[in-house]
Amino acid sequence: MRYQQWYSAAEWTKGAKHPVRVVGIAFKTVGAGSTKILDLEIAMAAGSAFGPTASFDSNMVKDRVVVVPRGKYTLPAAKPGQFVVKFTFPGVRQFVWDGASAVVLDIKLYDNGNKNNPHGYPFEFTVTGFNQVSRLYSPGHPDQQLVASQFNPNQGITTQFTFEEGVTVPFGKGCPGQHNKIPVAST
Question: Which of 115, 93, 125 has its CA nearest to residue 39?
């Protein structure tokens, strides 16, 4: 299965008013559920300001970062109303939000721990205002899913992002100097 969730820039500015390094994510559950072992990969990227399209790859317009590399991860037993499913991103895998772009969360699920039958893990879904959060997904092998078969505007899995201050964001392009080296400036 391939799953994407798009967040508008306005949705992001509710929690961060300027560029930040995203260092973790958590998903909220609504009911009790047993422990699951998933084979997955999670990436983040800047997204289109106009919202997602049905084409997964075109929704990630720049700066795609694999924040959780493909591997087997244990989802703990679900507890109603808690953020029990958590991932922390190591330093080289942090996503830098530029303070202005929409954001896309891209999840490739290779094995859901239930022989790819419905897993029944009780994630909380939320309904949002117009053009704030949208989700799209398609069953099947995630590397072969290029177009979403399901699109749900104005709703998504309830997520919580952890971020840190102190980022550097490239600013413009430097001019060649001595030995034709170009300096990199950031703010």
Answer: 115
